From TrEMBL:
The keyword Membrane is annotated on this UniProt entry: yes
Family as reported in the entry's similarity comment: In the C-terminal section; belongs to the glycosyltransferase 49 family.
Stored PANTHER family: GLYCOSYLTRANSFERASE-RELATED, XYLOSYL- AND GLUCURONYLTRANSFERASE LARGE1
Reaction equation(s) it catalyzes: 3-O-{beta-D-GlcA-(1->[3)-alpha-D-Xyl-(1->3)-beta-D-GlcA-(1->](n)-4)-beta-D-Xyl-(1->4)-Rib-ol-P-Rib-ol-P-3-beta-D-GalNAc-(1->3)-beta-D-GlcNAc-(1->4)-O-6-P-alpha-D-Man}-L-Thr-[protein] + UDP-alpha-D-xylose = 3-O-{(1->[3)-alpha-D-Xyl-(1->3)-beta-D-GlcA-(1->](n+1)-4)-beta-D-Xyl-(1->4)-Rib-ol-P-Rib-ol-P-3-beta-D-GalNAc-(1->3)-beta-D-GlcNAc-(1->4)-O-6-P-alpha-D-Man}-L-Thr-[protein] + UDP + H(+); 3-O-[beta-D-GlcA-(1->3)-beta-D-Xyl-(1->4)-Rib-ol-P-Rib-ol-P-3-beta-D-GalNAc-(1->3)-beta-D-GlcNAc-(1->4)-(O-6-P-alpha-D-Man)]-Thr-[protein] + UDP-alpha-D-xylose = 3-O-[alpha-D-Xyl-(1->3)-beta-D-GlcA-(1->4)-beta-D-Xyl-(1->4)-Rib-ol-P-Rib-ol-P-3-beta-D-GalNAc-(1->3)-beta-D-GlcNAc-(1->4)-(O-6-P-alpha-D-Man)]-Thr-[protein] + UDP + H(+); 3-O-{(1->[3)-alpha-D-Xyl-(1->3)-beta-D-GlcA-(1->](n)-4)-beta-D-Xyl-(1->4)-Rib-ol-P-Rib-ol-P-3-beta-D-GalNAc-(1->3)-beta-D-GlcNAc-(1->4)-O-6-P-alpha-D-Man}-L-Thr-[protein] + UDP-alpha-D-glucuronate = 3-O-{beta-D-GlcA-(1->[3)-alpha-D-Xyl-(1->3)-beta-D-GlcA-(1->](n)-4)-beta-D-Xyl-(1->4)-Rib-ol-P-Rib-ol-P-3-beta-D-GalNAc-(1->3)-beta-D-GlcNAc-(1->4)-O-6-P-alpha-D-Man}-L-Thr-[protein] + UDP + H(+)
Entry-linked InterPro entries: Glyco_trans_8 (IPR002495), Nucleotide-diphossugar_trans (IPR029044), Xyl/GlcA_transferase (IPR051292)
UniProt name for this protein: Xylosyl- and glucuronyltransferase LARGE1 isoform X2
Bilayer-spanning residue ranges: 12-31
Keywords for the protein's UniProt record, in alphabetical order: Glycoprotein, Golgi apparatus, Membrane, Multifunctional enzyme, Signal-anchor, Transmembrane, Transmembrane helix
Organism this protein belongs to: Vulpes vulpes (Red fox)
Taxonomy of the source species: Eukaryota, Metazoa, Chordata, Craniata, Vertebrata
Places the protein is found: Golgi apparatus membrane
Membrane topology: Single-pass type II membrane protein
Stretches for region Disordered: 42-62, 82-110
Length: 735
């Protein structure tokens, strides 16, 4: 009531101002403008250039007269604008926008159905915009399934975190693949004031599997319909987002719109910006029923508590069953059913301004949602073409999306000052361990490195592999950085079995790798290669951490611990599987050594037999690995014996021994305290020996070859070479 009174007073004051000020202004000009005691007329007629009085006046008088006239007219225009604004803020029901364009002003909740007479509860209040409390938690729900959608979620989350000023609670309805990927990502991301809960999407399939769906999102595209049943009963409201959304503003602004819901409004939606639901896209086009253009469900505001009271489950099910009798299937997944429900119950909707869901599919009217960059709030790539969609301003939108795609996620680990975070045991333990370190210690940076939590994105690309049923399967394990990408295709050609790789990359490099992989026929044809991204942080190369990440996510019973610079002989995968049975690795603690060789040539005719390899050794085309710089590293392999051996033989461990081995999956991890170059594999082999793992060398065909540029392979680690001595003297190995 107080707000209405104030609004009326403002309206009255503005009206009086418009009426009084021009009169006073003209009186002032009339009284103060005299020439030789005679008043100067300012009538419109006499102010025209061709009037008699105007012609008789001198140049200075005419100039003064024109200036005053312009000033008065400008004041009148300003006052008229002020009056129109006051009228726009006056209390009373809003009629909404009757035009077909998309309003740039704050949403009123009006929709086309409401224009037909259903306007109750949709008027907006005058006064200040509702404000979200500083530490109020904003709840966001996202349905995510599979490897590609998991990558999309990361970009969406980055855009939200970049702008946010409030605690966030993400509710992720995910399949087992997405949950494994995103749970690890958020655990290692460790963003303050962010909570993540997962809900098993596979358990919800039975709720929507009866609905035929032609949309590319599949069965997961229908799961937003069951959020009232899936999310916690005490959760009252939630923002629901598609994975192909990018935020350009603080999500708290969208959360504040909940305060504008009136009456029975329980759904906040943006009008669909294409002609899909108008039914005129092609001949015999028959879309699901909708109000006018319908609504897009890429961004939804749900009042869960009210929806439950309205029996939303029963409402949408009855509507879907009725419409499916004629439509047979959905074309746009949950969006079709939401629109059919709204068609029958238009009072449910609060229409959001269209800048909360700027839809970039083909043939949309999205450009009518904004006049300037500052108008943009949410960008929705709702076309199967994604970044390749045709749009007038797609280049700008694409650059905005790529900014978040390549943005360093570590920079988003910022505290929300004044908002207490929930107690995190892992974070508290980490801080305690860091506080116990002596910063004056010469090895402080090395010791601190072992507590660094590197953000990790598992299975960056699609992975699909079932291990062989005979329990002999072997996975090649390696780690690499950006400068070794060129080795991937060659390794895939030489090793047909499963591969687990840990890549140490920045966010921008991860996208370069993605483009490289997607452009490679060799890599895209292989679904049994797991790429795990460990994001860069700090000054050291965490070589053993990378190996551990690759080892931990192996699904086969045996591992071939190799390096990225080595190309296996053709057929090595099958040979090792046979050797696993021959050496009874399943029931004994053995490590099977694969002899390693290197070449100084960039081009090499790969030997097809042991005899050919021996010939190349004799000619100096090949060498035993690191023969010129570190013979102790592989000397215990006993290459002289290997030349004539026809059966596997036992090898005794010696100091500094670092062979490449096949071991069981339950072998110990690498000591992550070793970073950079030097002693990292030596410590692991020592531990294998300390645990009574007998080592044997394959005598016949198996071997690995070091790729071109063998001696230069340590160049990426030369910077860390000085730390090798510090590492060994200050940071003890496990024994």
């Amino acid at each position: 009531m107080l707000g209405i009174c104030r609004g009326r007073r403002k309206f009255l004051a503005a009206s009086l101002t418009v009426l009084c000020i021009p009169a006073i202004t003209w009186l002032y000009l009339f009284a103060g403008s005299f020439e030789d005691g005679k008043p100067v007329s300012l009538s419109p007629l006499e102010s025209q250039p061709h009037s008699p009085r105007y012609a008789a006046a001198g140049p200075r008088e005419r100039e003064s007269l024109e200036v005053r006239v312009r000033e008065v007219e400008e004041e009148n225009r300003a006052l008229r604008r002020q009056l129109s604004l006051a009228q726009g803020r006056a209390p009373g029901p809003r009629r909404g926008n009757h035009s077909r364009t998309y309003s740039m002003e704050e949403g009123t909740g009006d929709s086309e159905s409401l224009r037909a007479g259903i306007v109750a509860g949709n008027s907006s209040e005058c006064g200040q915009q509702p404000v979200v409390e500083k530490c109020e938690t904003i709840h966001v729900a996202i349905v995510c399934a599979g490897y590609n959608a998991s990558r999309d979620v990361v970009t969406l989350v980055k855009s939200v975190l970049f702008h946010r000023r409030n605690p966030l609670h993400f509710h992720l309805i995910a399949d087992s693949i997405a949950e494994q990927i995103l749970a690890t990502l958020f655990q290692t991301w460790m963003v303050p004031a962010v909570r993540v809960d997962f809900y098993n999407a596979d358990e919800l399939k039975s709720e929507v599997s009866w609905i035929p769906n032609k949309h590319y999102s599949g069965i997961y595209g229908l799961m937003k319909l069951v959020l009232t049943k899936t999310l916690p009963a005490n959760l009252e409201r939630v923002i629901v987002l598609d994975t192909d959304i990018t935020f350009a503003t603080d999500i708290a602004e969208l959360w504040a719109v909940f305060h504008k819901f009136k009456g029975q409004q329980v759904l906040g939606l943006v009008e669909n910006q294409s002609d899909w639901y108008l039914g005129n896209l092609w001949k015999n086009h028959r879309p699901w029923p909708a109000l006018g253009r319908g609504y897009n469900t890429g961004v939804i505001l749900l009042l869960l508590d009210k929806l439950r009271k309205m029996k939303w489950e029963q409402m949408w099910r009855l509507t879907a069953e009725r419409e499916l009798m004629g439509m047979l299937s959905t074309s746009l997944a949950d969006q079709d059913i939401f629109n059919a429900v709204i068609k029958q119950n238009p009072f449910l909707v609060y229409q959001l301004p269209c800048f909360w869901n700027v839809q970039l599919s083909d043939h949309t009217r999205s450009e009518q949602c904004y006049r300037d960059v500052s108008d943009l709030k949410v960008i929705h790539w709702n076309s199967p073409k994604k970044l390749r969609v045709k749009n007038k301003h797609v280049e700008f939108f694409r650059n905005l999306y790529l900014t978040f795609l390549e943005y360093d996620g570590n920079l988003l680990r910022r505290e929300l000052f004044g908002c207490p975070s929930e107690a995190d045991v892992n974070s508290e333990n980490l801080q305690k361990q860091l506080s116990e370190l002596d910063e004056d210690d010469l090895c402080y940076e090395f010791r601190r490195e072992r507590f660094t939590v590197h953000r990790t994105h598992l299975y960056f690309l699609h992975y699909e592999y079932e291990p062989a049923s005979d329990n002999t399967d072997v996975t090649l394990v390696a780690q690499l950085s950006m400068d070794r990408l060129q080795m991937l295709e060659a390794i895939c050609k030489h090793w047909e079995g499963p591969i687990s790789l840990a890549l140490y990359l920045s966010d921008a490099e991860a996208q370069q790798f993605l483009r490289y992989a997607q452009g490679s026929e060799v890599l895209m044809s292989r679904h049994n290669v797991a790429y795990h991204i460990v994001y860069k942080e700090g000054q050291f190369y965490p070589v053993n951490l990378l190996r551990n990440v690759a080892m931990k996510h192996v699904g086969t019973p045996y591992l071939f611990l190799s390096d990225i610079d080595f190309l296996p002989m053709y057929g090595l995968y099958e040979y090792l599987r046979k050797s696993v049975i021959q050496l009874d690795l399943a029931n004994t603690k053995k490590a099977m050594i694969v002899p390693a060789f290197e070449t100084l040539r960039y081009r090499l005719s790969f030997p097809k037999s042991k005899a050919e390899l021996l010939s190349m050794l004799d000619m100096g085309t090949l060498f035993t690995f690191r023969y010129h710089v570190w013979t102790k590293g592989h000397a215990p392999t006993n290459f002289a014996k290997w030349r004539t051996a026809t059966t596997p033989y036992r090898v005794e461990w010696e100091a500094d021994f670092e062979p490449y081995v096949v071991v069981r999956r339950d072998c110990p991890e690498y000591d992550r305290r070793f970073v950079g170059f030097g002693w990292n594999k030596v410590a692991h082999i020592m531990e294998l020996d300390a645990q009574n793992n007998h080592m044997g060398t394959c005598s016949h065909l198996p071997r690995t070859f070091h790729g071109p540029g063998a001696l230069s392979s340590t160049i990426p680690y030369i910077i860390g070479h000085l730390s090798r001595n510090m590492n060994s003297s200050c940071c003890p190995m496990l024994t």
